[in-house]
Design a protein that fits this description.
This protein is an alpha+beta fold. The chain folds into three domains: 15-159, 3-Layer(aba) Sandwich (Creatine Amidinohydrolase, Chain A, domain 1); 172-313, Creatine Amidinohydrolase, Chain A, domain 1 (3-Layer(aba) Sandwich), CATH 3.40.350; 315-600, Creatine Amidinohydrolase (Alpha-Beta Complex), CATH 3.90.230. It has 19 helices and 28 strands. Helix 16 (431-448) runs antiparallel to helix 17 and helix 18 runs antiparallel to helix 19. The longest helix is centred in the middle third of the chain and has 28 residues, at 318-345. The protein is globular and about 65 Å long. The two termini are 35 Å apart. Belongs to the peptidase M24B family. This is Aminopeptidase.
Length: 604
């Protein structure tokens, strides 16, 4: 009945390959007189989604999570993952070869201090490590009396005989009708930022920044419409964009040449050398060490600081904001059609995780405007939902049985990017499950209703979402919210609601609001909507105040709520939210879905 076009459920992980591939890597390292190798899950752009040719950690270890860092020594190897992936790592990796390590407990720097032998030479690929990251690792190696050695050719590539070719997909223009600003205007604002920073040029290696600044998109990686390339933007003169010419049609080439010179990526090295004597702005936390050190070797002065494009990109303009609202209306209608369908089909006992994900994608495709899913849907029943970043495969595919079903999904439309999670009751939920669901909801409402002064960062409101769980001795291991792009990355910085979110929140920023709770081996809960930072007028306020507009429109399952745990204000918020969902989505769906919405959105 349904099928998925934009996501695959094939199992790509094979732990049995870990031992022979690790042995082959160690043999290769021996020929290079190296005692070890450092391998982050990364490419030269530090992308979240990598082209298949850059999935080296997955190929070597079997681990497919979005964060992973491997250290291979002659007698041991470790795979570092964060709290989202501790369970997944144990299932995907041969533990006799790679020891999974929670990076929150033991970061790679500490592990290296304890495990490196004096005199050891450990290799690394400087295209895959950020300047800031490799400097921390160098200090750790120095502490142990060892040395890190940059290699020209990645030894994993040398043993990866069937490595896919790098992507070569067409670059397409992102219409100003969606972007809301011309390239000329954006470059002008970037140059203004360089002038304020007293920098002569900006090196752009983040593909998201490249796409935003030059109003281009592509499909070099899955789920994020990125063209992979680079740019140098000078404070004076024309910018240079480094893109493979085979990706450019004559029309796209002409559009780009109106604002920039074009060159092949291979020409970047020489271009960096021509910046001798110039002050070049680089984001040390995002730029590959190879590029930064090439600049220094060529006589340029590095100015370390945040990439100004990241901040400019994070604050959406009015056209992008209107686009986000339109995308969420369209997406909300598709999601509500799915939820109504799910409510009818799940009790029959024949529905599974893959079928559910395929159905939701199909409802979105029926809008006629879906360009991709913004990430592979997390379609998780029962204990699978206790894995925050669970990815269903044909091997893990489970039936939807009584309890909770969690569906975390999103869409890419030209006018906006969406991300939404709903946890749905199938049959009955236990009293404990309802208690946890309600505490997550209370945290969600606390963020939705937060009012805060200008200058407040996500770190300062992160605890709002956790307090109801903390009061019961509970917590969750991921951030409360991440930034979201405009037909770009579903995980965008620098804005975030997290213990690490130090960037002040500003009007125009879009973030997720997604507290959760996960009981390993039993069930998981997450309630997520996207919110837009907006100005709030408060009578008598002595400071400029901000709050959130909720963008996502889809009901929250009232069957899982213990209404007695909600305050009167919380119940009023939920009833008002559901009334808005009914009013705005009810007119966009078929009569059967509208009738389902009317029942589902009734006041508590």
């Amino acid at each position: 009945m349904f099928e998925a076009k934009f996501q695959s459920f094939d199992e790509t992980s094979d732990p049995s390959q870990g031992a022979p591939r690790l042995a082959a890597l160690r043999a290769r390292l021996a020929t290079l007189t190296l005692d070890g190798f450092l391998l982050p899950r990364a490419d030269e752009h530090q992308n979240e989604y990598l082209p298949p040719s850059a999935e080296r950690v997955a190929w070597l270890t079997g681990f497919t999570g979005s964060y992973g860092f491997v250290v291979v020594l002659a007698d041991r190897a470790a795979l570092f993952v964060d709290g989202r992936y501790t369970v997944q790592a144990r299932t995907q990796v041969d533990a006799s070869c790679f020891t999974p390590v929670n990076v929150g407990d033991t970061p790679p720097t500490e592990w290296l201090k304890r495990n490196l032998k004096a005199g050891a030479r450990v290799g690394y690929d400087p295209m895959l490590h950020t300047l800031e990251g490799i400097e921390r690792l160098e200090k750790a190696a120095d502490h142990a009396g060892a040395a890190l050695v940059a290699v020209e050719t990645n030894p994993v590539d040398a043993i990866w005989s069937d490595r896919p070719a790098p992507p070569l997909t067409p670059v397409v223009p992102h219409d100003p009708a969606f972007a809301g600003e011309t390239v000329d205007s954006k470059l002008g604002r970037i140059v203004d930022e360089l002038a304020r920073a007293r920098a002569d040029a900006l090196l752009v290696t983040d593909a998201h920044a490249l796409a935003w600044a030059f109003n281009i998109r592509g499909s070099d990686v899955a789920h994020t419409p990125l063209p992979l390339g680079f740019a140098i933007i000078p404070a004076e003169g024309r910018a240079t964009v480094f893109l493979d010419g085979r990706k450019l049609s004559n029309a796209v080439r002409a559009d780009l040449e109106a604002n920039a010179e074009l060159a092949e990526p291979a020409a970047l090295d020489a271009a960096l050398g021509r910046l001798s004597g110039k002050t070049v702005r680089v984001d040390a936390s995002g730029v590959a060490a190879a590029f930064a050190r090439r600049l220094e070797a060529g006589g340029a002065r590095l100015q370390r600081g945040a990439d100004p494009i990241a901040k400019l990109k994070a604050v959406k303009n009015p056209v992008e904001i209107d686009g986000a609202r339109a995308a969420h209306l369209r997406d909300g209608a598709a999601l509500c059609r799915f939820l109504a369908w799910l409510d009818a089909e799940a009790p029959k006992g024949t529905l599974d995780e893959i079928g559910s994900a395929e159905a939701l994608e199909s409802f979105r495709r029926e809008t006629g405007l879906l360009r991709d899913v913004s990430f592979p849907s997390i379609s998780a029943a029962g204990q699978n939902a206790a894995l925050p970043h669970y990815r269903v495969t044909r091997a893990s595919n489970a039936r939807l049985t009584p309890g909770y079903f969690l569906i975390d999904s999103g869409a890419q439309y030209e006018d906006g990017t969406t991300d939404v999670t709903r946890t749905v009751v199938i049959g009955q939920a236990s009293d404990e499950m309802k208690d946890r669901f309600t505490r997550v909801l209370k945290g969600h409402i606390a963020i939705s209703t937060a009012v805060f002064p200008k200058g407040v960062s996500g770190a300062q409101i992160d605890a709002y979402a956790r307090r109801p769980l903390w009061e019961a001795g509970l917590d969750f291991d991921h951030g409360v919210g991440h930034g979201v792009g405009s037909y770009l990355s579903v995980h965008e910085g620098p804005q975030r609601i997290s213990k690490l979110g130090t960037t002040p929140l500003e009007p125009g920023m879009i973030l997720s609001n997604e507290p959760g709770y996960y009981k390993e081996g039993h069930y998981g809960i997450r309630t997520e909507t996207l919110v837009l930072v907006e100005r709030r007028r408060i009578p008598g306020a002595e400071r400029e105040m901000y709050g959130f507009e909720t963008l996502t429109l889809a009901p929250i399952d009232r069957r899982a709520i213990v209404s007695e745990l909600l305050t009167a204000e919380e119940r009023a918020w939920l009833d008002a939210y559901h009334a808005r969902v009914l009013a705005e989505i009810g007119r966009l769906v078929d009569p059967a879905t509208a009738a389902w919405l009317e029942a589902t959105c009734a006041p508590l």
